[in-house]
Design brief:
Number of helices: 4
Number of strands: 2
Distance between the termini: 46 Å
Length: 110
């Protein structure tokens, strides 16, 4: 079932893909997304990059997030052990703090 990927309360209010896609279609989309990669492009990104990862993310598992961070020339990884791929829903405050800290330390805030 799609409940494997999305738990109650994890999606933004008014958006719950579990009710809009049949499980087979959602699974096919999820597997295709997992196969997609842009790894060959990461080394060419020349701006400071903050990688935010969740410990329960099945779309971009923690080991993939660490590999993305390692492949970027100037990046930092923020790891939220209890967050999923939809981490902003339940972890907005720590993510906002991480982004603010990252931008401040990098002198990127006006």
């Amino acid at each position: 079932t799609t409940g494997r990927w999305f738990r109650d309360g994890e999606c933004a209010p008014g958006f719950d893909p579990r009710g809009r896609l049949d499980a087979r279609s959602f699974k096919a989309m999820s597997l295709a997304a997992q196969r997609h990669t842009a790894e060959d492009l990461l080394s060419s990104i020349s701006v400071p990059t903050l990688v935010v990862a969740g410990g329960t993310d099945v779309f971009t598992p923690p080991e993939r997030a660490r590999a993305i961070d390692a492949a970027l020339p100037d990046s930092e990884l923020v790891f939220l052990p209890k967050a999923s791929h939809a981490g902003l829903v339940g972890h907005g405050e720590p993510i906002a703090e991480a982004v603010d800290d990252f931008l401040t330390r990098r002198g990127l805030l006006a």
